[in-house]
Design a protein that fits this description.
Layout: H1 18-24, H2 28-31, H3 36-39, H4 44-53, E1 61-66, E2 71-75, H5 76-92, E3 101-105, H6 110-121, E4 125-129, H7 135-144, E5 149-152, E6 170-173, E7 184-186, H8 187-190, E8 208-214, E9 222-227, H9 231-240, E10 249-252, H10 259-271, E11 275-279, H11 285-295, E12 299-302, H12 304-313, H13 315-319, E13 328-331, H14 338-347, E14 352-356, E15 366-367, E16 381-382, E17 388-391, E18 404-409, E19 418-419, H15 423-427, E20 430-431, E21 435-444, E22 450-455, E23 460-462, E24 465-467, H16 469-478, E25 482-492, E26 496-505, H17 513-526, E27 535-538, H18 552-560
Parallel strand pairs: 1-11, 3-4, 3-5, 5-6, 6-7, 10-11, 10-12, 12-13, 13-14, 26-27
Antiparallel strand pairs: 1-2, 8-9, 9-19, 14-15, 15-16, 17-18, 18-21, 20-21, 21-22, 23-24, 25-26
Bound molecules: adenosine-5'-monophosphate-propyl ester.
GO molecular function: acetate-CoA ligase activity
Protein name: acetate--CoA ligase
Domain AMP-dependent synthetase/ligase: 55-417
């Protein structure tokens, strides 16, 4: 099945001539959009904030922030002043210098963004941390990166083991009751009185920007370092993929503790001078729909799990809100099930556009562009200027329709520049010094669309048949009783592996033998006999990362009674 492309909109760079652009694209054309192309003086915070504050966009809203207690907006000009104050505050109360690592460990709030961009103005490398991290996760990251400073709140301070982190000099605390003493600085006390003028620290385009820790399949989380130059791809994909225009109100639901929340929560929209919504607090279907209605969101970037949770909340709820401003909906982080695409088309009257990328790629890599017909279930086509291919384990390119390693030719603009403190690990990602190997398996069809199959180690071999867990999960999700599904291969002496499904039920359904049989038949009928799970186990909730991926390795560990490994990226 194919879903037709959206009609052309005049004057917008929509990639209607994708093939032509993809063939010859030269990133220097994009470099010319930045002030550093002429001056050589680079800083993300200048391009994302100050440049607009000093232009016609001065009084345009950069940030709408809302949570249970606050509902605020800041123009680009106000953002410039607040981030200058933050930069002065950080500078005057520490020994921090260009290139030093500073972590941000706090819930979303306007101050988080003032401080993040204040730190960037100082030329620091920012390490965002998700607020649900516990002490061990904090320790590993700060220790590995020799962090000199952390920004946190009095409530979260007990999870920062500063006694065990000798390099950690300064703790900046954002909150009401701050006991200020040597090395503990009260941000809210100093922010209003800090100067709103600041001389930006000019950097080179290869200097550090953000350090995102992410889990691999083995070992401790690794620090993925991105360079300032990532902005080139983050900016341009904002145009091609997110379809930014001057009047858009954009909402990316990801937390800045994860790469989506930095690259596309703030960098991409602000590089493009686009108004961004940040919603604090927790997920709730009503709260989310209300945010779209209240802010008049036009472009919405979220994740399959969120869409599935909204789906589970029922279609009646959607009708209680005016979502008519929405014109473009996108997804990232895990496979977007065709079922969800169809649901989106039905309730929002919008096709959900899947995008594929990962922490290491630094920016969107394979996407469904507004101008392009969607094949539900496909991630789309590579971002122009990038070469993406399916390669075998030796790094040889495979022909269409053959499954293999999803790989990207080294040297794309937003590519990670280092695994912090671990050059050997960094090198291990590349084959033939040419291909970055993603760890995902996929195939490309004759028309150049890429189809995700699973993480390399997730594909199931059962009775000699190759089964992608995603296919089975997608089918399971079409069953009316199922809200969430995760599928693993369970070792079996006869069949190699059998398929085991873990499922969470929609409210109102109860586990029973009849239901198990019904689900099994449903998959058998809908997909294939060999794809039907031999075992089905009911769970209240499935383990997921914050970016929404079902953590199959945790399901597998439960099943086989093995240690679950690093859980620091797990939601809650
Ligand atoms: O397995 C792929 C999956 O998420 C992985 C990257 O995770 P992370 O670094 O946390 O970044 C998430 C958001 C940028 C990939 O290796 N993934 C991401 N997007 C998709 C996806 N799987 C299927 N379809 C996608 N669109």
């Amino acid at each position: 099945m194919k879903v037709e492309a959206l009609p052309a909109r005049a004057g917008v760079h929509q990639l209607h001539n994708y093939e032509e652009i993809a063939e010859n694209f030269d990133w220097t054309e994009v470099e010319k959009e930045f002030s550093w192309y002429e001056s050589g003086k680079v800083n993300m915070a200048h391009e994302a904030i100050d440049r607009h504050a000093d232009s016609d966009r001065k009084n345009k809203v950069a940030l709408y922030y809302k949570d249970q207690n606050r509902n605020e907006s800041y123009t680009f000009y106000q953002m410039k002043r607040m981030t200058n104050r933050a930069a002065n505050l950080l500078k005057e109360n520490s020994t921090l210098e260009k290139g030093d690592r500073i972590f941000i460990f706090m819930p979303r709030s306007p101050e988080l963004y003032f401080l993040m961009f204040g730190a960037l103005k100082m030329g620091l490398i920012v390490g965002p941390l998700f607020e649900a991290f516990m002490e061990g996760a904090i320790y590993d990251r700060l220790d590995d990166s020799d962090a000199k400073s952390i920004i946190t709140t009095p409530e979260l301070l007990s999870r920062v083991p500063y006694d065990r982190l000798p390099k950690l000099e300064t703790v900046f605390l954002v909150g009401e009751d701050v006991a200020e003493h040597e090395g503990h600085i009260d941000v809210l006390k100093h922010l209003p009185t800090s100067s709103d003028k600041f001389e930006i620290e000019w950097l080179d385009k290869e200097d550090g920007l953000v350090l995102h820790y992410t889990s691999g399949s083995t070992g401790k989380p690794k620090g993925v370092l991105h360079a300032q130059y990532a902005m080139v791809q983050q900016y341009q994909t904002g145009k091609w993929v997110l379809d930014f225009t001057e009047t858009d109100i954009y909402w990316c639901t990801a937390d800045p503790g994860w790469v989506t929340g930095t690259a596309y929560g703030v960098f991409s929209p602000w590089l493009n001078g686009v108004t961004t919504v940040i919603l604090g607090g927790r997920f709730s279907p009503d709260g989310w729909y209300k945010a779209i209605e209240d802010f008049g969101v036009t472009i919405w970037y979220s994740a399959p799990t969120a869409f599935r949770m909204l789906m589970g909340a029922g279609d009646a709820l959607v009708k209680e809100y005016d979502l008519s401003t929405l014109r473009h909906v996108l997804s990232v982080g895990e496979p977007l099930n065709p079922e969800v695409v169809r649901w989106g088309a039905q309730v929002f009257d919008k096709r959900i556009h899947d995008t594929w990328w990962m922490t290491e790629t630094g920016a969107q890599t394979i996407c469904n562009y507004p101008s392009m017909a969607i094949k539900p279930g496909s991630m789309g086509k590579p971002v122009p200027g990038l070469k993406v291919a399916i390669v075998d384990d030796q790094g040889n390119e495979l022909p269409p329709n053959q499954m293999g390693n999803l790989a990207i030719e080294k040297g794309w603009p937003a590519m990670m520049r280092q695994i912090w403190n671990n050059p050997a690990k960094y090198e291990s990602y590349f084959l033939k010094d040419k291909w970055y190997v993603s760890g995902d398996s996929a195939y490309m069809d004759e028309e150049g669309y890429f189809w995700f199959q699973g993480r390399v180690d997730d594909v199931i071999m059962t009775s000699g048949e190759r089964v992608g867990p995603f296919e089975v999960e997608s089918k399971l999700l079409e069953h009316p009783a199922i809200a969430e599904a995760g599928v693993i291969g369970k070792p079996d002496p006869v069949r190699g592996e059998i398929i085991k499904a873990f499922v969470a039920l929609v409210d109102g359904y109860e586990p029973s033998e009849e239901l198990i049989e019904d689900i099994r038949q449903f998959v058998k009928k809908g997909l294939a006999a060999h794809a039907a799970p031999r075992e089905i186990e009911f769970k209240d909730k499935l383990p997921k990362t914050r970016s929404g991926k079902i953590m199959r390795r945790v399901l597998k560990a439960w099943e086989l009674d093995l240690p679950t490994g690093d859980l620091s990226t797990m939601e809650d």
